[in-house]
Amino acid sequence: MLRLAALTVLTMLAFAANSLLNREALADGQTGPAAFAMIRVVSGALCLWVLVRLRSGPVRPALRPLGVLSLALYVLGFSFAYVTLQAGVGALILFGGVQVTMFAGAVAGGERVAWTRWAGAAVAFAGLVWLMWPGAQATPPVAGAALMVAAALGWGVYSLLGRGVPDPLAATASNFVFAAPLAVLVFAAVPDGATMQGALLAVLSGAVTSGLGYALWYTILPRLSATLAAVAQLSVPVIATAGGVALLGEELSARFVIATLLVLGGIGLSLVRPRQRTIGSNGS
């Protein structure tokens, strides 16, 4: 259990790093969103496929259309959303949306969900509603928020699919290989370019925090319930926010702080196990 917790924390750090790397590259104009997404997917595909070849020799990529499309939707929506969103805000919208998607998938799949997780999900969702509620200066840009919601749908579906994969590394590599042409097509339509530093940030995001991070996520997903996996990912916005403030000079708003506290409260509540009623031998 301790090893699983450590691997889960490491994966969440990789997810938060993706937000920071993407935002850093876009904020200073070092790369455009289409270029970042393309380099990220291509470098991730190359890194993962080399690992697969080293492990088991020549392997033919297996096409899983829904996995490829959900991965592409996530990566492209993620990159374009960070043109206008701060790292922490984007991560909060992303993983709040992921939680909703994975809870819906869990319920549709017949998974029994404890009342504490329902309550935790409701509190966390209330935090997202507070963040997104219109009429305040701190409300995120509509276009960026909508793109990140689309990315959340893609990642939520991708995570649900990953729970039943027998070979996580090969599956992740195949999904990246087949998603790469889609990212290239988007870049061909929107050739926004990248500097050398921007390209290096995208390669780091693709090969390390995405490729290796997602392979690790696929590995531990079968050992987590869909609802617990969804809740665990809600820690990412807090990590991304801390990194955004410390490394990118981003500011904290009162609205975002309240939303984050609600999300964290939802995580804590979801992790509480409800007490089981016991029946004595005399039936009382």
UniProtKB/TrEMBL annotation:
Ranges in a coiled coil: none
InterPro entries: AA-Vitamin_Transporters, EamA_dom, EmrE-like
Ranges where the EamA domain occurs: 144-270
UniProt keyword list: Membrane, Transmembrane, Transmembrane helix
Primary location recorded for the protein, binned into one broad class: membrane
Transmembrane portions of the chain: 37-54, 66-83, 89-108, 115-136, 142-161, 168-190, 196-217, 224-248, 254-272
One term under GO cellular component: membrane
Organism domain of life: Bacteria
Membrane topology type: Multi-pass membrane protein
Compartments, record wording: Membrane
Database matches in PANTHER family: AMINO-ACID METABOLITE EFFLUX PUMP-RELATED, INNER MEMBRANE TRANSPORTER
Stated name of the protein: Threonine/homoserine efflux transporter RhtA
